[in-house]
């Protein structure tokens, strides 16, 4: 029997990344409802964004990166924008007056750049003003880039195009984007390598959240395990939990979990999503999302 132990151990290690999703809580916060894990598309497309309470005056959104932008009953439209940070793509949201020219609206906001709160987290944009779609046909959006669009070297030019492609393909009529006059159409899969190990689609920067706060996105991390902490304004941990993405350790999967926290009064806080290092147990690939916390006991 002793000779069978090494093969069995190896088998367990090989199947660990394919184990059923699990969710748990750590620290002072009691467990929230069990999350529903939705598989990501092969190109790493995030799962549907769960209902979330937005910043003051912003309606909750159920929009996703691949479904129509969410139109509110109050005549507003919530769109997802993909900015850049550290050479990678990072999503955020905008809620604006509704319009039929959704692609123009999204590209205008993309060129306008991040808000002060978003800039404080390192978000930036490489997309210049004047980037507009000229036609959409057969699932392909064609645009004529303004002068200098591909300046600043190949790396920045590719990231700039990725921002446009990932932002425009949230709309159901657009699956790929062609940059006139000669470039072939490209889609999200062509820029999937520009996603960071952990993508957080909810909450967004500046959202007002309540306990339990729903955290969702995609990840490619060791053994698919995604960990979350909720911190108060002083950096004290007031809630924590973990879950497994639908795929991990070499593939990108979707994750979603609810994390309860305790806080006597409303105020600023941070939702921190990270991976626990297999080497030394430290927090790595950390994504910090500043939010407004409501009181919770």
TrEMBL record:
- Signal: present as a keyword of the record? yes
Give the Low complexity compositional bias ranges.
23-43, 54-71
The UniProt annotation puts the region (Disordered) at 23-71
Tell me the leader sequence span: 1-21
Keyword annotations: Signal
Q: According to the UniProt entry, which residue ranges have a biased composition of type Pro residues?
A: 44-53
Residue ranges annotated for the GerMN domain, each copy included: 103-186
**Database matches in InterPro entries:** GerMN, Gmad2_Ig-like_dom
Q: What is the lineage of its organism?
A: Bacteria, Bacillati, Actinomycetota, Actinomycetes, Micromonosporales
Q: What organism, scientifically named, is this protein from?
A: Micromonospora terminaliae
Protein name (record): Spore gernimation protein
Keyword Signal in record = yes
């Amino acid at each position: 029997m002793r000779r069978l132990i090494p093969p069995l151990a190896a088998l367990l290690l090989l199947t660990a990344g394919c184990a059923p999703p699990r969710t748990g809580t750590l620290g002072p916060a009691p467990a929230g409802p069990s999350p529903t894990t939705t598989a990501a598309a092969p190109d790493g497309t995030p799962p549907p964004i769960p209902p979330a309470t937005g910043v003051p005056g912003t309606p909750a959104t159920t929009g996703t990166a691949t479904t129509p932008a969410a139109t509110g009953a109050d005549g507003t439209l919530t769109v997802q924008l993909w900015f850049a940070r550290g050479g990678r793509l990072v999503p955020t949201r905008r809620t604006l007056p509704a319009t039929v020219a959704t692609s123009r609206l999204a590209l205008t906001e993309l060129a306008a750049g991040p808000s002060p709160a978003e800039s404080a987290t390192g978000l930036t944009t490489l997309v210049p003003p004047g980037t507009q779609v000229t036609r959409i046909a057969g699932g392909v959006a064609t645009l004529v880039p303004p002068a200098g669009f591909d300046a600043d070297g190949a790396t920045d030019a590719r990231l700039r195009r990725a921002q446009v492609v990932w932002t425009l393909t949230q709309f159901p009529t657009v699956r790929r984007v062609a940059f006139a006059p000669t470039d072939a159409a490209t889609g999200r899969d062509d820029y999937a390598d520009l996603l960071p190990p952990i993508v957080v689609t909810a909450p967004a920067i500046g959202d007002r959240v309540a306990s339990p706060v729903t955290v969702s996105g995609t990840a490619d991390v060791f053994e698919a395990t995604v960990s979350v902490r909720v911190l108060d304004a002083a950096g004290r941990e007031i809630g924590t939990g973990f879950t497994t993405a639908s795929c991990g350790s070499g593939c990108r999967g979707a994750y979603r979990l609810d994390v309860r926290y305790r806080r006597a009064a409303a105020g600023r806080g941070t939702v921190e999503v990270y991976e626990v290092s297999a080497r030394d147990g430290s927090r790595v690939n950390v994504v910090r999302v500043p939010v407004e916390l409501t009181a919770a006991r």
